[in-house]
Amino acid sequence: PGRGAFAAELPGGDDFGDLPPQSARVFRQYRGPLQFAGDFFLFEFREMVSDISKWSDIESLYQSSSANGQGQPSALSRLILIPMQQISLSFPPDVSDELAEAKADMEKSLQQVVKATRMTNAAVSEGASQGQVKDAEKAWEAGRSSLNRFYALVNTAVGAEAMQPIPADPSKSYVRTRQRYTQYKKGLAICQNRGGSNLAGVWGQLMVYGTATDPCGDMPTVEAYLF
């Protein structure tokens, strides 16, 4: 069977170091979602944290939903935590514990961001305090550190620079730009409006399940965007 659109050749081909076959298979599936989590965290989530007018959106991203009587993971879980969890569970024991710890630290950071950006009645009427803003930014930076630590652990296990760490400032040098990220998201939205079956629901679902088959024809593949 062919690979999903997230798969990409590592330097020197499919050299996964000492990864067992099952770990290599899961890594192929979730490498793209895991990298896209960083782009979301850098280009979109950071902006939401920095812009008080968007704080209410953060709360909605953190809330789980219910469909057909069953609980569904939150958007932040689908975008960030599930890819981290899938990889940490599938990697060898000598690294999986450290990966799980980094994932837990990321989850804690997301919870702290949500707590810091939750608007009380006083904050709604008077505006957020400087303390709230600083707490939110501090929690975001802690999350960035956890995600980059996760990337570094994966790179060590894989034996290649497969994951790209994200900078603290999106205006600094990075392999992708905010413009490229925004354009790709617009392409996903257009594709969904055309009825792309793999784009139903939140765009992050596409990444989590690795079903990046392009039903629109003219939309760049995720692989082309990321790598």
Structure class:
mainly alpha
Strand content: under 5%
The N- and C-terminal alpha carbons lie at a distance of: 21 Å
As residue ranges, the low-confidence spans are 1-13, 197-212
- Lateral arrangement of strands in the main beta sheet: 1-2
- Gross morphology is globular
Query: Mean pLDDT, rounded to whole units?
Result: 80
* Estimated radius of gyration: 18 Å
Quick synopsis:
Helix content is 62%, strand content 3%.
Key structural traits:
227 residues, mainly alpha, two-stranded antiparallel ribbon, 9 helices
Can you lay out the helices and strands and say which pair or pack?
Layout: H1 21-50, H2 55-62, E1 65-67, E2 70-72, H3 75-90, H4 93-117, H5 121-126, H6 130-158, H7 178-193, H8 204-209, H9 222-226
